[in-house]
TrEMBL record:
It comes from Pseudomonas pohangensis. This is Co-chaperone protein HscB homolog. It holds the Pfam family HSCB_C. Interacts with HscA and stimulates its ATPase activity. GO terms for molecular function: ATPase activator activity; protein-folding chaperone binding.
């Protein structure tokens, strides 16, 4: 028997739009019931199985709670594996990203907390736009290439968002 689908572990239908609160609640419930500590007095095999299940559950949760990872996973379920090395073949998007990175560097150099907040809101809006576009296109085979392009863009914006969080932490210190 193969590994169950991440969505099936949480009794969810494979879709990009998922109820994050429901996902978190089901994760906490499953994690509590299957936590390896509950099997401390069990046989070695049961302990190993509990550890494996816990690891699978944690991985599935991490994938499903992240929009870019969930999008990649959905495409993989449809047979579209994205290469990590593939770059965005979209000059306009690349120029936009270079501009965003330069803007973030300027905010960092100037220690501009207010500017970082404005930047973060714009970035969040761009992420939401991409997520909506992906949600509308991922399940249409005719739009597979567009969906893959959107996932790559999501991954880039997610990485940029992580950099913004690190900058905020440095500015708060």
């Amino acid at each position: 028997m193969g590994t169950p689908c991440h969505f099936a572990l949480f009794d969810l239908q494979p879709d990009f739009r998922i109820d994050q609160q429901l996902l978190s609640a089901r994760y906490r419930e499953l994690a509590r019931v299957t936590h390896p500590d509950r099997f401390a007095d069990a046989s070695a095999q049961d302990q190993r199985l509990a550890l494996e299940h816990s690891a699978r559950l944690n991985e599935a949760y991490q994938v499903l709670r992240s929009a870019p990872l969930r999008a990649r996973y959905l495409l993989a379920l449809r047979g579209h594996e994205l290469s990590l090395e593939t770059t965005v073949q979209d000059p306009q998007f690349l120029l936009q990203q270079m501009s965003l990175r330069e803007e973030l560097e300027d905010l960092q150099c100037n220690a501009d907390s207010a500017g970082v907040e404005v930047f973060k809101r714009r970035l969040k809006a761009a992420q939401q736009d991409l997520e909506e576009a992906f949600a509308a296109s991922w399940n249409d085979p005719a739009l597979a290439e567009e969906s893959e392009r959107q996932v790559r863009r999501m991954q880039f914006l997610d990485k940029l968002s992580q950099e913004v969080r690190r900058l905020e932490e440095r500015l708060d210190d």
